[in-house]
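PROTEIN DESIGN WORKSHEET
SECTION A - STRUCTURE
LENGTH: 724
TOKENS:
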């Protein structure tokens, strides 16, 4: 490197030491502005390069005093320059990391270890560089410093990987390939064996003591009950108002949706289990088998401990003759192999009018091959069970909604392979089941929904025969309803003269009710959305989806905006924020509405922002227009220092140089604890015919005292301007 360039680099290295020391000493008093956050987020992108350079530099430094290299001037210069460049890049990486650590979610012991080992890496590299020119710099100092720097550098990398990938990232391929110990259903706990694994797979990478995103940890019951920055995680017994479920049910593109977009999402079954757990008062110590037999959580959870058999079952009997099967098939009876190349047969009988016990007896030529018999809704009586008992290898019997009373169930006890017995919708009695079920040696499941048995009686059966699962939880009101998604907008929200309000829902049979007065819709009094309502002005509509047997959707708000005029040309007189430029001035009139999702590329493509100066826009209409109002659609998110404008002025006239003030507005400022909102704000005035208008919006000069960024200028964001 040229001497002048080396001198500049050394000065930069010294300045970096001072700046990083300043950041470390005063980190609790420093707030990183939004426009600087993207610089901090580049930390993971850059860090690998200085790691590589520093590792190579310390390796060369360790061999510097060996005879083969000691007299090699090129080796010494290259090693020194490599250490200088690596140190400078490490400084940039450390500064980025310190900026990034100020964002929400970077707390915990691992973050602290990563921060200090990263800073120590930089300081030690800088010290090692300056020590090279000292007289006391020797082989021992060089090798000792290189070893220490290498160890600290690897430690910083280890803690960084733990933050991004989890504590077990390195050993995961070894540990996760091991076959987990099977969980005994009799000992399984609802939280430890059903709910906690969901948190571990989908949540704890960001919500653990080492990385407390939102000040929330989901690794232990105590932390889960404590909640986080946004409050309690759940309200026991009320999943519909619990923060956990509300965040899960947000659209994936929403900023606060959990898990975040890009992460592995929860499956419908996992969401269902979490909702049922909260509805059951979020017990942490209850066993699965302690739940009622009809409980939906128990039924779903039990399936987790029943691994699917991946191999084809083997049967000891030979296949039936093809011609015999062909002759026995008819319009009211179908016989088919259980699977390809399997000797086992499945038999289904249809048509009540054609059924008779003889139809069962006719199957005697294939009695050894029948493993599944479906008599659902056939007029089967207790006396017919003796004909069913001939199928010696029968494994599954469906006699749902038949005329069975259960008094002669013991006739089926000879079926040594029977595992599943479906008795739903029959007149079976508790006493008959209790007395006869013990004779079934291999029975695993009994379906009993829509029978006369009470929940208490089914619970008694479950306790008496724990090896059998008594299913009675999927009928009508006994099953857990599913919550509907919110309605969706069916057409553009921006119109010129009038539009038809169109809301839709992906689930068939859903009705949508709405209000226009700001109140929440209800299922009785609020009008039905028929997609015929015509509006001629801006309007806010609240809507909910309803369907029998489902939990109603959350309230969704849809804002329709009228925009009568689009300028022929527009010019910004003052610069936009470097971070929030969207597609320039044309974005004000492109009918693309921004969403929250701050700091994402999609968000940046919709919003235009100013902070250091006013937003000043001049627009021209080649044909004069009569206007009475101007509105700016703004984002208001106090948490991230985004506030509405403190003042809006609208000027108009027939020439660019001679315009008069048409109207002003002083928008209300949010107070502490205000929720984020997307809102059109502006002013109205008497009709004026103009060829030019000038819109001035002033950012809030001083953020209020209650805010963590108090005294600084607020960011003003606008995505659309409506002229009417």
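SECTION B - SEQUENCE
RESIDUE ASSIGNMENT:
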């Amino acid at each position: 490197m040229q001497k002048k360039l080396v001198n500049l680099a050394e000065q930069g290295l010294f300045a970096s030491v001072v700046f990083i020391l300043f950041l470390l000493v005063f980190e609790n008093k420093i707030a990183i502005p939004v426009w600087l956050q993207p610089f901090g987020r580049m930390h993971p992108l850059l860090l690998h390069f200085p790691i590589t350079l520093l590792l190579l530099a310390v390796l060369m430094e360790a061999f510097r005093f060996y005879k083969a290299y000691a007299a090699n001037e090129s080796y010494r210069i290259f090693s020194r320059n490599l250490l200088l460049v690596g140190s400078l890049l490490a400084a940039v990486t450390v500064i980025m990391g310190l900026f990034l650590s100020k964002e929400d979610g970077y707390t915990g012991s691992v973050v602290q270890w990563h921060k200090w080992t990263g800073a120590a890496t930089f300081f030690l590299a800088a010290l090692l560089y300056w020590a090279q020119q000292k007289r006391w710099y020797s082989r021992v100092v060089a090798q000792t410093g290189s070893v220490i720097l290498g160890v600290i550098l690897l430690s910083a990398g280890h803690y960084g990987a733990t933050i991004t990938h989890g504590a077990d990232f390195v050993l995961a391929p070894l540990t996760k390939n091991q076959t987990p110990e099977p969980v005994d259903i009799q000992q399984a706990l609802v939280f430890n064996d059903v709910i906690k694994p969901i948190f571990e797979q989908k949540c704890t990478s960001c919500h653990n003591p080492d990385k407390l995103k939102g000040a929330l940890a989901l690794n232990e019951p105590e932390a889960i009950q404590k909640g986080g920055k946004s409050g309690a995680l759940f309200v026991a017994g009320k999943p519909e108002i619990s923060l956990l479920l509300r965040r899960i049910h947000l659209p994936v593109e929403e900023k606060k949706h959990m898990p975040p977009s890009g992460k592995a999402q929860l499956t419908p079954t996992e969401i269902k289990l979490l909702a049922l757990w909260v509805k059951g008062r979020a017990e942490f110590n209850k066993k699965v088998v302690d739940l009622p037999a009809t409980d939906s959580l128990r039924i779903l959870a039990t399936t987790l401990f029943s691994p699917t058999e991946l191999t084809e079952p083997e049967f000891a009997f030979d296949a039936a003759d093809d011609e015999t099967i062909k002759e026995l098939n008819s319009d009211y009876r179908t016989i088919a192999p259980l699977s390809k190349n399997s000797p086992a047969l499945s038999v289904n009988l249809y048509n009540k009018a054609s059924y008779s016990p003889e139809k069962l007896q006719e199957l005697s030529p294939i009695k050894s091959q029948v493993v599944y018999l479906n008599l659902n809704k056939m007029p089967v009586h207790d006396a017919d069970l003796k004909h069913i008992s001939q199928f010696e290898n029968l494994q599954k019997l469906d006699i749902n909604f038949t005329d069975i009373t259960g008094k002669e169930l013991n006739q089926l006890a000879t079926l040594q392979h029977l595992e599943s017995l479906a008795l739903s919708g029959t007149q079976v009695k508790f006493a008959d089941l209790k007395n006869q079920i013990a004779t079934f040696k291999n029975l695993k499941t009994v379906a009993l929904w829509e029978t006369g048995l009470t929940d208490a009686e089914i619970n008694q059966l479950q306790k008496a025969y724990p090896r059998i699962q008594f299913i009675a939880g999927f009928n009508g009101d006994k099953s857990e309803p599913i919550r509907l998604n919110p309605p969706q907008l069916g057409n553009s929200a921006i119109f010129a003269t009038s539009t038809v309000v169109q809301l839709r829902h992906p689930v068939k049979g859903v009705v949508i009710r709405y209000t226009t007065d700001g109140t929440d819709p209800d299922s009785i009094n609020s009008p039905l959305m028929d997609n015929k309502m015509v509006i001629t002005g801006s309007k806010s509509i609240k809507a909910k989806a309803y369907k029998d047997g489902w939990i109603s959707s959350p309230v969704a708000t849809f804002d329709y905006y009228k925009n009568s005029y689009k300028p022929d040309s527009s010019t910004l007189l003052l610069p936009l924020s470097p971070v929030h430029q969207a597609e320039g001035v044309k974005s004000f009139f492109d009918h693309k509405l921004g969403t929250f999702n701050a700091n994402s590329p999609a968000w940046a493509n919709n919003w235009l922002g100013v902070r250091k100066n006013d937003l000043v826009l001049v627009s021209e209409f080649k044909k004069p227009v009569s206007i009475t109002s101007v509105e700016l659609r703004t984002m208001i998110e106090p948490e991230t220092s985004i506030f509405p404008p403190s003042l809006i002025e609208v000027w108009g006239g027939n020439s660019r140089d001679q315009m008069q003030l048409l109207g002003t507005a002083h928008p209300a400022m949010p107070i502490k604890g205000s929720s984020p909102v997307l809102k059109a704000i502006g002013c109205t005035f008497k009709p004026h015919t103009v060829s030019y208008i000038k819109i001035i919006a002033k950012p809030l000069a001083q953020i209020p005292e209650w805010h963590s960024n108090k005294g600084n200028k607020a960011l003003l964001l606008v995505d659309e301007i409506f002229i009417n």
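SECTION C - NOTES
The first helix runs from residue 3 to 25.
The two ends are 64 Å apart (CA to CA).
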